[in-house]
What does this fold into?
Amino acid sequence: MKDLLPAPADYRLEGRVWVQGPHDRFLGIGRLELLVQIQATGSISRAAAAMGMSYKRAWDLVHSMNTQARTPLVATQTGGKSGGGALLTPAGAQAVAEFQDVQARFRAFLADETQRLAGQ
Amino acid sequence: MKDLLPAPADYRLEGRVWVQGPHDRFLGIGRLELLVQIQATGSISRAAAAMGMSYKRAWDLVHSMNTQARTPLVATQTGGKSGGGALLTPAGAQAVAEFQDVQARFRAFLADETQRLAGQ
DNA sequence: AGCCGTTATATTTTGTAAAATACAACCCGT
DNA sequence: ACGGGTTGTATTTTACAAAATATAACGGCT
It folds into this structure.
């Protein structure tokens, strides 16, 4: 693109990747961050607030992941000393780790291709 | 994800990539196909029809690409023997070729990562 | 001069995803 | 018993992208 663009340095390859199931999306960057925030805050509602997302949307995303996975990624509890809460299951932690790796390789791919665009 | 999912073979990594400029998107898979259809049909309106897209939307996309590139990717003509038409400039043909290469490498990346998901 | 099919452009309508709102259920602690 | 903060769920409202509609301009042809 070097000679196609007025300022090639201002252009870069961007993108998104996600794990797609037969019916629904299973895991993408937004769901990943949601899982991380649940891990960090111990609740869906605080994770949603931290991301500027409505609780309903966050809950729907958790529900989608939990029902698609063989075993839930997020364990929830209603009521209790602090009203309830949520935390990652081992499966959830594994999903986070694996998808973070995918994301890292994808970022590398994008950086590579951005270099190539600027070069050729 | 092998042990996270009930039927790992049904899940795969999907995604999108695009060339992003400082203000607008410059080129993605939709714009690429639009350019290819313009090349094939000789007009924006026929290209739009071939893609099930409104003429306005197609024209807006062409306008966005033409104004961002150093030199237009699509040359248009109003009036004339068949009412007018559009065709790819050399710059447009080069953009198509380069972005098709990016897409090919991205498809390879996705296939790789899908294999990895199924495997580990 | 008038027709045709296109480009070019503005405005209105529609469809849909997200947000907002509301409220029941839960259960530990006081 | 009830207060608090959460999960769980339905419904309404809002925001925005896309589609639909409308219309002018263009220029070769008959």
